[in-house]
Design goal:
Structural class: alpha/beta
CATH superfamily: Class I glutamine amidotransferase (GATase) domain
Number of domains: 1
Strand content: 25-35%
Bound molecules: glutamine
Distance between the termini: 24 Å
Helix content: 25-40%
Number of helices: 5
Shape: globular
Mean pLDDT: 94
């Protein structure tokens, strides 16, 4: 194994992500301390509650070093609350809600409203030849994307049809839904590809130096 993937383990569905990565044969570790950041080539930020996660990141003194690594090019994959953590801008956040940032997107927290706050549905996603079963739990959607952001998926039908629910920008990706639940590892595979590619590019650069 030439790379290690971390799962931010402050709060949320950490175990589910570790299990999917293990099923893919990945070397995956839980990340709770700043020192653990040094060992990883990519990071999954799970679903949970973004306001709690950001608070804990600050308490555990992970906020600044993690932000620095993300801005230095660490590949990351945020699901649901993790998408909010990676967004540069939030609508309907709590007052003063910080994010780690990196993705040039505006996310709307708890966007699907009270009526349909949690639901499931098939999502067609760029890079996958068959739809993925999307589980949405008080999920955000992406309200707006910057120029460098590729939209990977939108809601297919219903009142939220057309809303953006998966994006990628460089080696950062995020989904509004929870691909770690339900036994389909293909979305994680897309992320593992990003990690592999980013690592190969870094190795090339070192060779050129
Ligand atoms: N509503 C949560 C938040 O704002 C996200 C929910 C989830 O991750 N399932 O962080």
């Amino acid at each position: 194994m030439d790379h290690t993937i971390g799962v931010l383990a402050l709060q949320g569905d950490v175990r589910e992500h570790l299990a999917v990565l293990a099923r893919l044969g990945e070397d995956a570790i839980a990340v709770r301390r700043p020192a653990e950041l040094a060992a990883i080539d990519g990071l999954v930020i799970p679903g949970g509650e973004s306001t709690t996660m950001i608070k804990l990141a600050k308490i555990f003194e992970l906020y600044e070093p993690l932000k620095a690594r993300l801005h230095g090019g660490l590949p990351a994959f945020g699901t649901c609350a993790g998408m909010i953590m990676l967004a540069e801008r939030i609508e309907d956040g709590i007052v003063g809600q910080d994010t780690l940032g990196g993705l040039d997107i505006t996310v709307r927290r708890n966007a699907f409203g009270r009526q349909v706050d949690s639901f499931e549905g098939d999502v067609s996603m760029t890079g996958l030849d068959a739809p993925v079963h999307g589980i949405f739990i008080r999920a955000p959607w992406v309200e707006e994307v910057g120029d460098g952001v590729e939209v990977l998926a939108r809601v297919a039908d219903g009142p939220a049809a057309g809303r953006i629910v998966a994006v990628r920008q460089g080696s950062l990706m995020a989904t509004s839904f929870h691909p770690e639940v339900g036994g389909d590892a293909r979305v994680h595979e897309l992320f593992v590809d990003l990690v592999r590619r980013a690592r190969a590019e870094r190795t090339d650069e070192t060779k050129r130096d």
